[in-house]
Amino acid sequence: MKVTIFGTGYVGLVTGACLAEMGNHVVCVDIDEAKVERLKQGVIPIFEPGLDAIVRRNHAEGRLDFTTDAATAIAHGELIFIAVGTPPDEDGSADLSYVLAVARSVGQHLDRYVVVVNKSTVPVGTADRVRETVAAELAARKASVEFDVVSNPEFLKEGAAVEDCLRPDRIIVGSSSPRAVAVLRRLYAPFNRNHERLVVMDERSAELTKYAANAMLATKISFMNEIANIAERVGADVELVRRGIGADPRIGYHFIYPGAGYGGSCFPKDVQALERTASSHGYQAQLLDAVEAVNRRQKGKLFELISRHFGGELRGKTIAVWGLAFKPNTDDMREAPSRPLLEALWQAGARVRAFDPEAQAETRRLYGERDDLLLCEDATTAAQGADALVVVTEWKAFRSPDFVRLRDTLAGAVIFDGRNLYDPAAVEEAGLAYYGIGRGRSLQVTR
Ligand SMILES: NC(=O)c1ccc[n+]([C@@H]2O[C@H](COP(=O)([O-])OP(=O)(O)OC[C@H]3O[C@@H](n4cnc5c(N)ncnc54)[C@H](O)[C@@H]3O)[C@@H](O)[C@H]2O)c1
Ligand SMILES: O=c1ccn([C@@H]2O[C@H](COP(=O)(O)OP(=O)(O)O[C@H]3O[C@H](CO)[C@@H](O)[C@H](O)[C@H]3O)[C@@H](O)[C@H]2O)c(=O)[nH]1
Predict the structure, then answer these.
(1) Under 8 Å between Cβ of 87 and 170
(2) In 3-state terms, what secondary structure has residue 30?
(3) What per-residue string of b and e applies to 65-80 under the rule 16 or more CB within 10 Å gives b?
(4) How far apart are CA 331 and CA 333, in angstroms?
(5) Which of 7, 27, 22, 13 is nearest to 55 (CA)?
(6) Is the ipTM of this complex over 0.90?
(7) DSSP conformational letter for 424
(8) Average pLDDT, stretch 38-62?
């Protein structure tokens, strides 16, 4: 089929490449000229496992093209996807200006039936606003063209985006138009061969499904961080508790890892946007408020542990930081827990030696050159001569260090394990003090 996609970010580019991989002819359009130029030359703007190969192959084989020309792109597709950003507004609600700009563009150029498919994460009622915006532009040029607007939220995770896109758990299709649903069914048939993955519903329910999924996952994480903070105080180990509750299939093992707080471009903004939607309808979403508050506090947790260990005096100390990206397998640092940590360390007068396998260029872009930040070529170099080591992101390469060697590499003998990767006994056997998240011992050591 012929597909047009507005936006070449995580969602647009991955969706475009995966749809091209299935034999569709895809044109991706973006307003960022430099990005489009680089994509045409096969330079992928983000680190996402497996993406390079499918973008390059499909581009070379003529099934995936890039442009900044909205009119040409709209002339191409039977389906027009909207996959542009919906960043938080000042008050936390979703900023729809990019989505509505695309809707206006569609209305200005449309000349035949198309299905406009919204993949961006948008508040309930946005499909109606997109429909009205396209219709208003058509009316302004006295054009009579039929079209449908479908809500088709995206659930991919960064770091596993291609895999998630090629093998979705479910495909939510929010539409009251049988004609549009039939078009989506045809497009998604190759992803839907062995199991029925399409869940068809009305537009509003589809829009809310996306927020509900993210809010549920964020709730699980904040819940576990809350339990971790209780475990720490009562001398229990949250890692044992996690395994103990995860074994119950009604709870499950997924998304119950305590840590340094959830980050990324989605959970923080989507929990907030859902709260705003609720309050604008006269409902105070108390649970969501708490999920956010617990997360905000958790993002200060590592600094709190470090500061307490050093008796509140960090001036002149050097802290090694392993992991800067908000999660492994990405170079994305949006809302990453590493950021409030770095900033608090600097504020307290500490210097940072950091290593991340992919996010160092992004760190440099965000913070520039500064005396109190040294980006190192590998994990061992980052640890060299530091007063403490903090693990913030659970990259595989950080999972099994040689603790004895690490003790000799570090100047100070202490590890702050923000992802509970290590066995505290193994760390302590090597002569290093260990602090984790909710591992009882954290408090015992500091007493
Ligand atoms: N990142 C994720 O993991 C993820 C997953 C699921 C859903 N989402 C949602 O999908 C949407 C897109 O997220 P993203 O992370 O891909 O965003 P992104 O910021 O990575 O990319 C958005 C792209 O849209 C482009 N753009 C803006 N206005 C445009 C216009 N008028 N025409 C063409 N291009 C335009 C920007 O230049 C940018 O390249 C958001 O609503 C987000 O919440 C994101
Ligand atoms: O048990 C867990 C699981 C995750 N996290 C943290 O939660 C954040 C988000 O992680 P993850 O969900 O894996 O990454 P995202 O790429 O942000 O994906 C989420 O946000 C996307 C955008 O809406 C959705 O499409 C995905 O389904 C949803 O998982 C990261 O900081 C993780 O470190 C934890 O602290 N504990």
Answers:
(1) no
(2) coil
(3) bbbeebeebbebbbbb
(4) 6
(5) 13
(6) yes
(7) H
(8) 96
CB 393 within 8 A of CB 325: yes
Listing DSSP states for 356-416 in one string gives -SS-HHHHHHHH-S-TTEEE-SSHHHHHTT-SEEEE-S--GGGSS--HHHHHHH-SS-EEE
Total-model pTM? 0.96
Tell me, what's the pLDDT at 164?
97
> Hey, how many other C-beta atoms are within 10 angstroms of the C-beta on 433?
18
Number of the ligand 1 atom closest to the C-alpha atom of 105: 31
Candidate of 46, 86, 221 to mutate for ligand 2, largest count of ligand atoms within 8 Å of Cβ? 221
Length reported for the chain = 447
* pLDDT at residue 115 is higher than 80: yes
* Binding-site residues, ligand 2, Cβ < 6 A: 121, 154-158, 214, 217, 221, 255-257, 259, 262-264, 266-267, 270, 326-327
Q: Does the annotation list 327 as a binding residue? A: yes
In whole angstroms, give the CA distance from residue 353 to residue 210.
38
Average pLDDT over residues 193-213: 96
How does 436-446 read in b/e, with b if 16+ C-beta sit within 10 Å?
A: bbbbbbbbebe
Chain mean pLDDT for the chain: 96
Residues 242-296 have pLDDT tens digits of 999 999 999 999 999 999 999 999 999 999 999 999 999 999 999 999 999 999 9
Q: Among all ligands shown, which has an atom nearest to the Cα of 260?
A: 2
Sketch out the chain's domains with CATH numbers.
2-200 (3.40.50.720), 202-447 (3.40.50.720)
Report the SS3 class of residue 419: coil
Please give the structure tokens belonging to residue 381. Answer: 């170099």
Distance CA 2, CA 136 (A): 25
Write out the two tokens for 2: 């012929």
State the DSSP code for 266: S
Catalytic residue ranges: 266
- Give the residue carrying structure tokens 């607007």: 149
State the distance from the centre of ligand 2 to the C-alpha of 157, rounded, in angstroms: 7
pLDDT digits (tens, 9 = 90+) for 301-322: 999 999 999 999 999 999 999 9
DSSP string across 209-264: HHHHHHHHHHHHHHHHHHHHHHHHHHT--HHHHHHHHHTSTTT-STT----S---S
Contact indicator for 231, 440 with CB cutoff of 8 Å? yes
